[in-house]
Amino acid sequence: MKATGIVRRIDDLGRVVIPKEIRRTMRIREGDPLEIFTDNDGEVIFKKYSPIGELGTFAAQYAEVLYKSGGFPVVVCDRDHVISVAGLPKKELLERRVSAALEELMESRRVYAKGSSDEKALQPVEGIDRHALAAAPIVASGDVCGAIMFMLGDEAVNAGDSEVKLITVAAGFLGKQMEE
After folding, report:
1. How far is CA 137 from the centre of its chain?
2. pTM beyond cutoff 0.85
């Protein structure tokens, strides 16, 4: 754990303000759920809650099946990090931050397809020079909670209707799983 040197008091309603610099660095937005942990040393730890992270094993299995049937590597992420990978080295992508471009795609609730005349190449993961073939936001109970995408390898192809439909159905299915 890293000390910030920032001290805040709890108000009479039990609230504490998380400083803007920390919210910006940790990508904590207004309305984001935070999970609270405690330990025996008296520490209280806030962690961004990832509802799709709860489906980690299931998402990994689903990504594997989608990779085998779709023929393209699959990446599943929550709103901030990659949580599951199939068809690419896991060490390369797992726990990496999503790019600002992917965040914007999720917030706008748009489906991305490489090859659309109005779309530029989507690099969904920070620090990784790989692009998406097709991507769709995962929506559960009206809230965007992540995205799923087919990734390109070395091939230069555009997304067809089948890839876009597969990734859209996958996003819908994962969203429904989170609602149950």
Report:
1. 9
2. no
